[in-house]
Amino acid sequence: MDRDYASPLDVPTLAQQALMSPAHFSREFKTAYGETPYAYLMTRRIERAMALLRAGASVTDACTAVGATSLGSFSSTFTEIVGETPSAYRARPHDAAEAMPSCIAKLLTRPARFV
Description:
Layout: H1 11-17, H2 22-33, H3 37-54, H4 59-65, H5 71-82, H6 86-91, H7 95-99, H8 102-108
Helix pairs in contact: 1-2, 3-4
């Protein structure tokens, strides 16, 4: 999922790759990663979109680059996870993230779901 986040991925296909039933795969995945496979995939997609938006990509370009098919769903999910709209995130300065090494910036800017 981390490598192919922009590809259409589904639980039955992932479970088949792991030689598990879809239900068992979902349970084991949630135990290992703390979230469902879909939530994990969406978090990775939003993480990549955040990097694209910081680099100056448009919201539409970021949306399509990470494999989202609907701009509305992408924006809703982005807002749910990040806590602000993609446009607002893109518009604000990101000087701190640009000043630190990329490995540290990636760790510190990793999105977390707001509940």
